[in-house]
């Protein structure tokens, strides 16, 4: 199955579910920014931008990913200097990267830009002790993700 929304395409690996929408823009007439959620558990209809309502459902081998697009004007900021989708390493994940630490989960956060579009990627793994496998699952999803430049 594929998800294709606002210039971002994800060829979902088996066992993943994804949904995307545009966040409302603060600028009249401007296109909103993409918010994409993907997980190895069913995504509830109600969930926070960075996974509240979903991460509580993760088992030890599950993964949640939030790809949050910022305004195009932010692409020139130092925070988004990294180019391309990040490579996820198990050492990038920590129990301290989560708003609420519970049940041994682990998280990681990356800021970057692709095709002139600035993003934050936030990933939660169901188990810090199994972060090598979780990082590999999240990486497999990113490997199957493409971002197109948008006009306007």
Protein architecture, described:
By secondary structure, the chain is mainly beta. The chain has one domain. It contains 1 helix and 8 strands, in the order βββββββαβ. A 5-stranded antiparallel beta sheet has the order 3-4-5-7-6, covered by helices on one side. It is globular and about 45 Å long. The chain starts with a strand and ends in a 5-residue tail after the last strand.
Describe the structure concisely for a colleague.
This protein has 152 residues and is mostly beta strands. It contains one helix and eight strands, in the order βββββββαβ.
Morphology call: globular
C-alpha-based Rg, rounded: 15 Å
Broad structural category: mainly beta
What gap, in angstroms, lies between the N and C termini? Answer: 29 Å
Whole-number tally of structural domains: 1
Number of beta-strand segments = 8
How large a portion of the residues is in β-strands, by DSSP E? Answer: 25-35%
How would you state the average pLDDT, rounded?
93
Strand numbers in spatial order across the main sheet: 3-4-5-7-6
Topology (SSEs and partners):
Blueprint: E1 2-5, E2 8-11, E3 17-23, E4 33-39, E5 63-69, E6 106-114, E7 117-125, H1 131-143, E8 145-147
Antiparallel strand pairs: 1-2, 2-8, 3-4, 4-5, 5-7, 6-7
């Amino acid at each position: 199955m594929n998800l294709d929304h606002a210039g971002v395409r994800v060829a979902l690996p088996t066992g993943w579910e994804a949904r995307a929408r545009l966040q409302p823009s603060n600028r009249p007439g401007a296109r909103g920014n993409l918010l994409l959620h993907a997980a190895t558990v069913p995504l509830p209809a109600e969930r926070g931008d960075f996974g509240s309502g979903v991460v509580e459902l993760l088992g030890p081998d599950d993964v949640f990913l939030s790809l949050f697009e910022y305004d195009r004007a932010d692409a020139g900021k130092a925070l988004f200097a990294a180019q391309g989708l990040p490579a996820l390493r198990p050492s990038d994940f920590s129990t301290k990267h989560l708003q609420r630490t519970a049940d041994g989960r682990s998280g990681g956060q990356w800021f970057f830009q692709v095709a002139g579009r600035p993003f934050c990627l936030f990933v939660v793994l169901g188990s810090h002790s199994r972060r090598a496998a979780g990082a590999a699952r999240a990486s497999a999803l990113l490997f199957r993700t493409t971002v197109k430049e948008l006009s306007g």
